[in-house]
Specification:
The chain is α+β, with helices and mostly antiparallel strands. The protein contains three helices and three strands. It has a single domain, classed as Beta Polymerase, domain 2, CATH 3.30.460.10.
Length: 68
């Protein structure tokens, strides 16, 4: 699931903005990150999302988009 989401994001970003963002992480780790410069996208498996609890760590930050 993590890889499929990442692949789709990269296809759409390339098509829409002609960008090749920097990607970190491996699908099997359950956490991948895409660095677009001004925006960082995290894609988590449910287990990793629960483990790191970024919502708590960044509770005062503005959420732009959240998909579950």
């Amino acid at each position: 699931m993590v890889k499929a989401l990442m692949d789709e994001v990269l296809i759409e970003v390339k098509k829409e903005f002609n960008q090749n963002p920097r990607v970190e992480g491996e699908p099997l780790s359950g956490w991948m990150l895409v660095d677009f410069g001004d925006v960082i996208l995290h894609i988590f498996s449910p287990d990793q999302r629960e483990h790191y609890s970024l919502e708590e760590l960044w509770s005062e930050a503005k959420t732009i988009l959240r998909l579950q």
